[in-house]
Each structure stands twice: as structure tokens, then as C-alpha cells.
Amino acid sequence: MSTLEGKTLFITGASRGIGKAIALRAARDGANIAIAAKTKEPHPKLDGTVYTAAEEIEAAGGKALPCIVDIRYEDQVEAAVAKTVETFGGIDILVNNASAIMLTGTTHTPMKRYDLMHDVNTRGTFLCGQKCIPHLAKADNPHILNLSPPLQMLEKWFAPHVAYTMAKYGMSLCVLGWAGELRDMGIAANTLWPRTTIDTAAVRNLLGGVELANRSRTPEIIADAAHVILTKPAKEFTGNFCIDDETLASVGVTDLSKYAVDPSQELAPDFFV
Known about the structure:
This protein has helices at residues 17-27, 50-60, 74-88, 111-136, 155-158, 162-181, 201-207, 209-213, 220-230, 244-249, and strands at residues 8-12, 32-37, 63-68, 93-96, 143-146, 188-193, 241-243. By secondary structure, it is of the alpha/beta class. The chain has a 7-stranded parallel beta sheet with strand order 3-2-1-4-5-6-7, sandwiched between helices. It is globular. The chain starts with 7 loop residues before the first strand and ends in a 24-residue tail after the last helix.
């Protein structure tokens, strides 16, 4: 399988950044996209809404269903999943992309932010999986893809920001468990993580501003790597913790220069790799 034509993807956080890039890549194949995101009104620091993303997806050749969803709330996720199934007839792929971040040490992490990261990253991912699995089980080549890091239990990844690392690793732990739990159902569960930083709103607004963004790659590298994973046979490719450049290299793509925001800059490595 080399195309996502006719497939239905439920993508969290797909109104911008990596989630939208994955949606647009699938849309070019002719896929159906449920955009599960919170932004319904323009934000001064964040580009796009679920509605502008839907317009881009339709223009790219896909079909879009904008869903206003805060994945912390079970009723909202249930309603979005039900609307997706009603609109497109099922769900073939779940992409857990939505995430919250705060890179602070233990004594500088307000419990409100701790709760947000764990509620969105770990609990939200688990919740979306729980609600989508019954529908994925009916699909021909069902996949779950979490945008989360490889599981390396090393002090250096936890010490600088314990709360954030725990929350992101929680997403990867879901995959570790789901790969085994869902294997007999034919549902693949994998993660995908970038080798370098990616030019997203989080990088520009929270992490390093324009300077770090210029040392990053564009979200399209994640979108292309995700496409490789999501078109693999689900029964043959599950339980993997994938890195974007390695995934592209596996299909012969080794020149990654087109993904650099500024090719003259040295690329900045991401966390956890």
C-alpha cells in the first residue's frame, strides 16, 4: 500500500504545525481528515483554526471534518469520534499529535501545568485510543501513530524537565502496551519523533524563538515520515519507536536538505534522541 486514498484519519491537534502537515500529506492522496483541535477563533500568537485547516485540506484534495475538541474531556472526544464515523463511515487511522509542553524543573512547575501536560499528553492519548479502537478494529489496515519519543530510561532526558518527560513518555508507553494488546486485532501502534527540532509554534513561542526555528526542519519531514509508516501493512509493522530521518532512509530518501528552514544553519537536535 502506497496511498491513503479513501482512508479516514482522526488527527488531534491538526489545526496547525505537525498535525496539519500530516493531514495535508494525507489529503493529497485523497484521504478524509477529522481535525480534532481546540482553536475555533484566531489566536494572536498561533496561526490557523480548525476551519482554516479544513479549507487547506479540501484544497489539497482531501475531505475535512472540523471538530472542536479538547481531548481532556471524554464527552468531547466521544462526540468527535461519533461524528467522524457518521460522516466518513469509519476510522482507519488515529494520529495522537496534540501535546502540551513546559520545560521546567520540579520546583518551577506549577501543578496546574503538570496536570495539563499529563491530561493532554498521556491521558488524552489514552482516551483517544480508547474511543477509536472499536472503529479501528473494523478497518482494513488500521494504525495508531503517536508523536512521542523512543523510550530511553536515561537520567539526562528526565532531569531537566521531569514533568514534561513523564508526560511525553506516557504517550510512548501507550504504544508499548497497545502494540501487544491490539496485535491480534490487526491494529498497528507506533511512535514517530524528529531527529532535529521542528519549526512549530512551540519552538517559536516557547523554546527558542526565530533563532531556533531557523535551525529546525519543517513539519513536512514528519508528515512524509508518517506517510511511510501509515501506508505499511499494519500486521507487519507495529511496536516501533521511529525517528523521522531513519524512516525516510528506509524507503531510499536520504537527501533531507529540502526540509531545512535555513539550509545555511546547523541543525539543532531535538530532545530524547
